[in-house]
Amino acid sequence: MSKEYQNGPNNRGGKDSDSIPIGGQFRPESVNRRDFIAKCMLFGISLPPMSDALLTSTAAATVSRAAWDPYPWKWGKEAIATNPDAALKWWLDEVTHNAVSDSDPSVVLTDAEISELKAMRPHVGFSWYSLTVYAVEGWKKFWTQKVSEWAAPNIVNFDQEGQPQREKEATELMISKHLKVAGQMSFDWMLFNTFMSLYHEHNIATVGIISPPSAYYPATNSCVTDDVTTFENLVKPICELLHSKGYRSVDAVWMVEASPSFWTGARHLGFERGIKKYESICKINVVQDNIPVATPAAAQAAANQALERYPNLHLFIMLAHQYLGCQAAVRAHNRRDVWVVASDVDEGTATALQSGGWPTYATVSLPIAPLSFAAANVMGKIFLGKRVPLLVKVEGVVATPQNIAEAYSKMWDGEKLPWH
To answer: Fewer CB within 10 Å: C terminus or N terminus of the chain?
Structure first.
């Protein structure tokens, strides 16, 4: 393995670098993985069970991968935070100051590197949150397409079906396949802290997509959306719509996914900034915040209650696929003066936007193809022993009735919007 991977020029340095303070007095070298799990049990935080077989690397694996160091950062396999707020702050700082674009040379595979990978034909796999979510199916499609250029033909794609317990099954599967690099999409980054330790035990490099899979234990690389910037921009067309309807101040209800994730926090921060930035156009008063919903049905029930409770309610903020429940409630109440802001382009948002922008008026066309291609390229770099960046970030495109087709095509590698 090349020394470039172990001691590359990245500005966060190798593991022998001086430690940096993370989140106040906390220092990453002070937290042991097993201590973390023990403390979680002490304070009543539920963690999935782990078998002894998965917690101990085999002698053969240790010998065969003695020179393999998939976690070369200064914190190595140790935690970078001890609570969710500190973790979110740490990751947002990294995205802001240290992430690179998907066009960076440390990300893009050269023709010579692709030829080398074709000769190697390494085995790869990825675990996906739920392939029933249109965007997730898109990420899986483009990632598979890209790695197929050089990987062994039996590519592993595991569908977690949106069920937390299947994240453990996915981790066990990737380990059983003896992969050197595994991809992971996890929407509950607190839950995945435990499973990341299993990848550590087996010295398997990890690549995340849309979000770092683990809050406390950084993957080898994560390809993420620049949600703070994108969702700040999302507020402007909403305020302009409300202003055009004669509103200068409206009440809004904000729902969030029940499972915590990096992108939930990043989107929340970006949208909050947008509310402040564009309040001169129309002031959005959030009268109910952080309502946790796990499904569209739960979002619909919460929206029904809010419509009856708040007479000046004109906006639902649901920056995840559960926005469908908000749409259903607004339609059922026939409230043409209430709109929904969402976070993706799928059949529901595309239909609403192409029909004039009701109930959903604005959403984000997420970087589906760019993130997938970046994740595939980074995996190739890791196989070749190259030092890769901790984070790759790509901005999405705000989509409204005026640009929905173009926004979709840009993020889906030139494909045309499939709904009309």
So the answer is: C
Helix axes 323-332, 347-354, angle to 10 degrees: 40
The model's pTM: 0.83
Which residue in 171, 207, 162, 213 sits closest to 192, CA to CA? 213
- Residue 151, pLDDT > 60, answer yes
The first and second tokens of residue 166, run together, are: 């299947």
Q: How many CA atoms lie within 13 A of 420 on its CB side?
A: 3
- Closest by CA position to 214, among listed 15, 36, 35: 36
How far apart CA 214 and CA 185 sit, in angstroms, is 10
Please give the backbone phi and psi of residue 377, each rounded to the nearest 5 degrees, phi first: -65, -45
Tell me what the mean pLDDT of segment 380-393 comes to: 96
Predicted confidence (pLDDT) at residue 199 exceeds the cutoff of 60: yes
The helix/strand/coil state of 58 is coil
Give the integer Cα–Cα distance in Å for 245 and 248. Answer: 9
Average pLDDT for 118-134: 96
Residues 223 and 209: their CA atoms lie apart, in Å, by 5
Q: Quick check: 316 pLDDT over 90?
A: yes
Distance CA 230, CA 270 (A): 7
pLDDT at 257: 87
| Residue 82: DSSP 8-state | S
| pLDDT given at position 40 | 43
**Strand 249-257 to 283-293 pairing:** parallel
Q: Token pair for residue 78?
A: 């140790």
Task: Set out the domains of the chain in order of their start, with CATH numbers.
Answer: 3-226+368-397 (3.40.50.2300), 227-366+400-411 (3.40.50.2300)
pLDDT value at residue 327: 97
Q: Which of 33-47, 252-266, 286-300, 352-366 has the lowest mean pLDDT?
A: 33-47
b vs e for 172-181, b when ≥16 Cβ sit within 10 Å of the residue's Cβ?
bbbbeeebbb
